[in-house]
Amino acid sequence: MNDADALAASRSDPQAFVQVFDRHFDGIHRYLRRRVGTWLADDLAAATFTEAFATRGRYDERRSDARPWLYGIAINLLSHHYRDEERELRAYARTGVDPVAPDEPRLVLESAHPDRDLAEALADLRDEERETLLLYAWAELSYAEIAEALAVPIGTVRSRLSRARQAMREVLTGEEESAAAAEAKENIDG
Amino acid sequence: MDELETIRRFRNAVPYQDQQAKEVVRAALLELIQQSLAPSRGGARRRRRLWLVLAVLALAAVLVTSAWGLGARILDFVSGEPAPEQVKEQFARDLRVKQVSPLFERQTPGVIAEQARGVIAIESSAGPIVLWVAPTESGGYCYIVDVQAHSGPQGQPNGAGGCDPFPQTVPIIWSISNSSSGGAKLLRLLKGHVAPKVASLEIVFAGGESEQLQLVDGFFLRELDTEEDQPTALIARDQQGVVLKRQPLRPPEEMLRFPGQNRVGPERTVSEIQTSAGYPMRLTIAPGESGLLCVRTYYRGANAGGCNPDPRDRSPAALDVAPGLWNETEDGKPVVLLQGSVGRDIARLDVRYQDGDTTRIPIHEGFVLFEVPRPNYGEGHLPATLIGRDASGAVIARRPVRNHGEAGVERQKKERGGARR
Questions:
Q1: If you compute the radius of gyration of chain B from its CA atoms, what whole number of angstroms results?
Q2: Which of A51, A29, A50 lies closest to A41 in space, CA to CA?
Q3: What's the ipTM?
């Protein structure tokens, strides 16, 4: 039974929703943990599936995979914590200690560690660019799926991803490239 | 490796599954589903918030607490007391020594030494131990653990210290330190700080027993018996008793080696230098779990490092080299390094200083461990640009020498309307 069928069935048999939960909780939860740490991720993941359960009656059954829909709910909840996330990324860049690192006693990265550059570069991105980039890189959603999750046109996804990747390249390689060159790279890769 | 692959590997150590969280949320979801199936009363359907159900489930899993153990008896004479001058001087000294070079001016946590105060003290096997804390300009704190029996001749505190310069967002920040003085019995201390939302903190031991750690202004400090106490977890709860964080604690022998990460092969030295302070410093690598590479630097009894994807694979022309400051708090002999790794196409690395001089930096198996000469600590002579060349001598990479977090600090200053430094 795919997600659309399970959600359709859950309207009369709520127990069927558990299939969707079992199938997608790990992915959603891990995405949230990588973004804001375990503590907040537990709360947001629980709220995501509560909201999904409550609104399952409005799910578009033409979409067999519920991932974009679930990520859309999760991101809407996560958006209230963007400033926390940015602050933690900057703290990581500055101190070498990742506030969201799992199960760690104060592992301190030496000053040259590239993850510190990366943390700062991610913090520098606009919220929507960071969201698009991480849905692509971490959640491994396609352009169409990201567009569905964020309720924006695919062209918008493409341009946000292009800008975000360009910014990352500049930080990681120390090289600047023109917007046209970045767009060309995006079209080849995407 | 392109930028996308680099991003994919960032925070990749987060486990793919958290079975405990999944089971708790699943059970609560089933409870909600059962409620949705129950007939409504008076025509109104009540929606219980998911976390209220989770609270019930979490409370059902709480262990019964036990009485105070060794090293936990709190001495109440020190809480809130202004720190003595020797302690304030130690905080201030940390700040001054980090100002050894403008390279690190913006990296200091902005500790306000004048406001240092005692927070918590315990009676330990080594006598009284006091935790002194000073706030930072960024809203965090710096601390010194003062083992009073080991104090210096003028009463200078002798113990571990550190800073969490920004307001805390994670539930628990903790560390376990091991120290001894003059061949005395090893002193093992658990210490840390909890977020404002945390109302209680429980420590669980391997035998199943547990106890509540006393929190004073969010700080905790407890001696661990080196032979008997095998702590396995810390559990943070809010005012309602809801578990906010269950923090596993690894066995001491693991934490003493590579805290939080394991190497799976022998460690070997790839670079060793003699610093101008007269001490050896060496950089080692070892294979880690899941194909990671564990890189560690050793200097004067301290070490720092971690296990991550091999940094040399990030990009063929990468220059992941940045300034670092070592041993800045002990005897006034800090050393400034350029440290890190280069991509596999980089055959030669040079640093150009602000005054135009250039020095070649040795590369050992792609790693860099280079002490900046002392004349280059000051403005006008600082390391300015890294230049990487390939085997033919062509310049293939160029990058300014910069510290992490500089841009972030400036941005924060602007956000706060120009905070005082």
A1: 25
A2: A29
A3: 0.84
